[in-house]
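Both lines are retained for reference:
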Amino acid sequence: MQRANAALATSKNATRILGPTLAGVLVTFVGGGWALLADAVTSLFAAILFARLPRLSQPRPARMWADLREGWQAFSRLRWVWTLALSYAIINLLLIGPWQILGPTIIGRSHSEAWWGVVLSARAAGLVVASVALMRLRFRNPLPTGLILGSLTGLPLIALGLSDSIAVLIGVVFVSAFAATAAAITYDSTLQTQVPRGELSRVSSFDDALSFATVPLSQLLVGPAALAFGATQVALFCGFALVAAHLIPLLVPDVRTVSRT
């Protein structure tokens, strides 16, 4: 299962290497509007490809409320799942807004916009290398190992808060991307192997809904926080808090033992 997830992640992450650099070049030379137009065209092409996928199963009668109830019961019964869903909700709150909004803002103070594309490409390279490596690597206890590695995702925000060196940022972004991929693949593989197949889709849905619910809140709050405390200070605080948010779930026994082999 881990090899399959790593293979899927490799194909997905490989496309992220060129994309950010190309976006930075487009923004610099033709403007952000044309870059967004190019993005829209590629999204339309992706939609056409999705429409060509064959149907793999027959639809069944809708039973939304029963599915929601059964899914919630299965989700709430698995302590390690809802613990990590809460943890990832906090992680997304601390990561998405500060990285996506404060990152280019802080870099733009002393470097051209194209450098932000280079930083994102370095991140994509780390994602690809990790995906390939995880086809071969085996962990005795994958879930805790992934969380420990995932704590390194706070490094880029810490670097933004402490240094304006592009070289340092590129290095820590590569390492953090490797760590984030390991955390994601080990978590997905643990879900797929430890949750009963008949409950997996609904448990994953509740897990995703809770984990990603804080993304818009993160993007909404980061601007006022930066105005009140300073962009670099907010980035630094969120970086250290990310380390804690990955490690605190390890205090829960179910999280430490669920994936042990």
Q: What stands out?
A: The mean pLDDT is 88.
